[in-house]
Amino acid sequence: MKRPTQADVARLAGVSRATVSYVLNDQANGRVPISEETRQRVLNAIEELDYKVDARAQSLRSGDTKTIGVLLPIYENPFFWQILRGISEEAEASGYSLLLAHNSLTPEQENQSVKELAEQRVDGMIMLIGFKLLTEQVKNQLRNSEHPIVEISGTTSEFDYVHQDYGAGTQALMSHLFELGHKRIGFIYGVTVPAQGFDRLHAYQEALETAGLPYDETLVYHCGELMEDGYQAAQELLKQPDPPTALIAINDLLAMAAIRAAIDMGLRVPEDISIAGFDDIPFTDFIVPRLTTVAGNPKQNGRDAVRLLLRRLNDPNRPQEVIVGGGELHIRESTGPAPV
User: Fold this and answer.
1) Which of 1, 86, 90, 183 has CB atoms 3.0–4.6 Å from 306's, for a disulfide?
2) What are phi and psi for residue 101, nearest 5 degrees?
3) In the CATH hierarchy, which top-level class contains the domain 167-295?
4) What is the mean pLDDT of residues 30-36?
5) Which distant-in-sequence residues (6+ apart) come within 8 Å of 339 by Cβ?
6) Does the pLDDT value for residue 314 go beyond 60?
């Protein structure tokens, strides 16, 4: 059966094709005298014929693709998939689809993914990876492209960006542990590059200073971002002659790995060792013990990134805009009084 066209809609509604186009694109804005009665006739004809807009043809005419490119890293952490869900929901609500590009954590593959995405027909890009980590060649390619860019970043950016700031949440977590009597608090710093979690490390250091406790570098363990890395880091920290009585991991996945490591060493959580994380991913309320964590708002971060991008598309010359989200401490079963 032949697919109905705008001409078919115009004939059924008794109007011109231009009128159908104005109604479809909602572009009259008072400049073209289209009455509500005429508009309704067009909408009724569209419904009766089951007319669908040809997105490809519309894209070629307008130059807009109604597509947002999203570059995300391949992480185990479901926190990033929660961000992607927020991006997807807001994009769909705004009439946009997504083109996803992902990559492993090697710089070579990351740069290649950015280059491939920048060459696609998209209206703009949202990056969940750090722009500062890219090669200068790829950075310049992005700067010189016509695509507006929004970052979701743990650091500052030269583009519009959404920043999840865990500084205040870290301070709240440290205060919670101090109130429980903990003085030796280990930190599992499992990041690809240090800048990704510096807000948490800096707040950890400041909290120790405020409490009059020394900053002990041997209690901060730098490792990779995989759960296996968190497991090994926890075991190394807990094997020390004077081990910590509490561990903070840079994210919930590494905190869960630390709980497993402690249990495998014959320790009880939280009776022998308190453990906490960041992000409040869905698993944290279902493991044993339930995990104390500083919650972010990943879905809202994703929604905010889309809104920033659409505002930039509508007004390319507007000043840079930054949206900062905070963290909220959720106290659960994995933290308790320091052992005597």
Assistant:
1) 90
2) -135, 130
3) alpha beta
4) 68
5) 245, 271, 272
6) yes
